From TrEMBL:
<keyword id="KW-0812">Transmembrane</keyword>
<keyword id="KW-0732">Signal</keyword>
<keyword id="KW-0472">Membrane</keyword>
<keyword id="KW-1133">Transmembrane helix</keyword>
<keyword id="KW-1003">Cell membrane</keyword>
<keyword id="KW-0653">Protein transport</keyword>
<protein>
    <recommendedName>
        <fullName>Protein amnionless</fullName>
    </recommendedName>
</protein>
<dbReference type="InterPro" id="IPR026112">
    <property type="entry name" value="AMN"/>
</dbReference>
<keyword id="KW-0813">Transport</keyword>
<dbReference type="Pfam" id="PF14828">
    <property type="entry name" value="Amnionless"/>
</dbReference>
Length: 223
């Protein structure tokens, strides 16, 4: 599952400041506002802000809180810190995640990938090879065949969710070996480690123990 704090969603239509001001005037006159689509966005000047109220009052919420949206430009498919791996959806809901080496933290060829419904994301899928998966779920829709996914990837919504010169290939096939199958990410280890260490100048942190280990498929030594 992609693990990412929510970002402002992408746009099918955009509300610029002058249009927003016009709509706010409608609100003051108690006229209904048009609904922003799921793939819509506010376009606001630097330093601008807005407040929203659904008409319901909750005690203890008298003071407004500030929410900060950060740039999503640095989010990469191959960054292992952005993924959670679980055995089942129940484990996902409970936050019961599996430990994996860095290569296998990025979705493997027999994995089902889930982008949670009602969340927004913009991820770089730049890759010299096709990204091989079993299936991928986006906005509540599960894709298991390449033709249907390829059609979706041409849509405006997909262009606001994925960027970079990369493509997906779906197998809809389970691992045939009960003892487990090869992940298939070994060829992308350099890309995975570069994404993992992008904010540290490509340098691994110094382990706190005297005799650290470096498992096969891991980028750095661990205790």
């Amino acid at each position: 599952m992609w693990d990412l704090s929510e970002m402002p969603p992408g746009s099918r239509g955009a509300w610029r400041e002058e249009k927003l001001a016009e709509e706010l005037e409608l609100a003051r006159e108690r006229r209904p506002l048009p609904k922003l689509p799921l793939n819509g966005e506010f376009i606001m000047a630097p330093g601008a802000g807005f407040a929203a109220f659904d008409g319901n009052y909750e005690p203890g919420c008298e003071t407004a809180s500030e929410i900060k949206f950060t740039s999503s430009g640095g989010y990469q498919w191959y960054d292992p810190t952005l993924w959670h791996a679980t055995v089942s959806l129940e484990d996902l809901e409970r936050g019961k995640y599996m430990f994996s080496v860095d290569e296998e933290r990025v979705p493997c060829q027999y994995d089902d990938v889930l982008f949670q419904p009602e969340t927004s994301f913009w991820v770089n899928i730049e890759s010299s090879e096709q990204i091989c998966l079993r299936s991928i779920s986006i906005m509540g829709q599960k894709f298991t065949d390449n033709d249907t996914l390829a059609e979706y990837m041409k849509s405006r919504s997909a262009k606001l969710q994925f960027h970079g010169q990369g493509a997906f290939r779906l197998s809809n096939a389970r691992c045939p070996d009960k003892s487990g199958c090869e992940c298939g990410n070994a060829a992308d280890r350099h890309r995975i480690c570069a994404a993992l260490l992008q904010n540290s100048g490509g340098q691994c942190p110094t382990p706190a123990c005297k005799s650290p280990l470096k498992p096969t498929g891991h980028c750095c030594e661990i205790c």
